[in-house]
Sequence to fold (502 residues):
Amino acid sequence: MEKSELMFVVLLLISGLFGICDCANIGVCYGRNADDLPTPDKVAQLAQLHSIKYIRIYDSNIDVLKSFSNTGIELTIGVPNSDLLPFSQYQSNVDTWLKNSILPFYPSTLITYITVGAEVTENQQVNVTGLVVPAMVNVRNALKKVGLHRKIKVSTTHSLGILSQSFPPSAGAFNSKYAYFLKPLLEILVENNSPFMVDLYPYYAYRDSNKNVSLNYALFASSAADVIDPNTGLVYTNMFDAQLDSIYFALNALNFKTLKIVVSETGWPNKGASSEPAATSDNAQTYNTNLIRHVINNTGTPFKPNQPIDTFIFSLFNENKKPGIASERNWGLFFPDQTSIYSLDWTGRGNMDISTGTNLTSPNTTWCVASLNASEVDLQNALDWACGPGNVDCSAIQPSQSCFQPDNLGAHASFAFNAYFQMSGASDVACSFGGLGVKTNKDPSYDSCIYATAGRKMSSMNSTVNANAVSSGANGSFCMLIIQKIAVFVSLSVMVIILNTF
Fold:
């Protein structure tokens, strides 16, 4: 093969890499049914601080849209159920809304989806299901007039209650009473390459049927007993996959086999009433940590293995104005002061086990600390790298946190070095840091500052503030990391070819 031909092949490989791995994304819902929340600009800063790249809101609030301008965060915005009637009646209503509420902020504020209505089949007081499709059509037409119909996709969200049957997953079927609006809805989604959006809550499945659903199964715990679908033989290790596959099977039954699914809400309450003993911050941390790992690693489901599943966690904050039982008001990840209710591993490397409360990886009794011979300049550079591009959660070494004292560069660098070392598989090269890192068999933990090992959480799991925007998993980092490494290798090959050509 000629060098020019080889170069062409290699370039094709590079361009194809990003189509090979369609990476799933993790986002967070930003509900605002509360009177104690931070201002939208503070919320935008909080999302950036934690490298949350995708946010779902439930309306088109101008202050929110302004606040997320130039942040790089992609928004899913909503048309509330209360607006479905005017949106479905007159195209001019939607055109005016788009002109006044969306176009002044786009594209500096990135908008990926518009959800028209939310869980309309759950509205027991007013039947608005018949308004959804006409409203969606008008929103899509308005976007088409301004050339945005291919950049902003239109959909609507559903609860699992849209199914008449969800177990076993292979028997998943849509409720026939919704057939009149489902078929045209699904046709519109396919025609416009928009996803089917569904809210999945294993918590409710466990709460309402804990004799049939185990807590381990609902929380993705590795110790959960497998559930086998008797019709297909598919093995389910968690409730999330079972619920998701019931939707896939229901779509298949209607011959909509290629429709993408986005999980528009899921999560676990951090607090509940006395009748809700499973609503705890520990269980919420376990569920969401394992969920993030499951999604970012592109695990897929038994029926759709390796299928990327974009997923939104509910919710950024507790919402003290929501009606209902106590758990309804306590799904948040953050307190109003923007500190964490519990820590989350956004990288997708975490795997929480509810029986031990530990982070499950391979056993390890080796730590990595900073060399006593390292200069302060070199240590500072290495620390900045670890807490930045290295994606280490350095919140524990921030003021008032468990590992801030002693407040010196060597101690802080040791904590960050070890965190990177452990999350990178405790390999020799992961403790190098250009000769600044040293492996040790002596546990450097002290007081409440716990250094991570492969089988133990580090102190930052209990910290409340994640600093320096160190987390990266919210945009599918695991998958993208693989692509980047391959792309670097192929790019170097191209350079060698070019150098040998001249």
Remarks:
- The first helix runs from residue 3 to 20.
- The first strand starts at residue 26 and ends at 29.
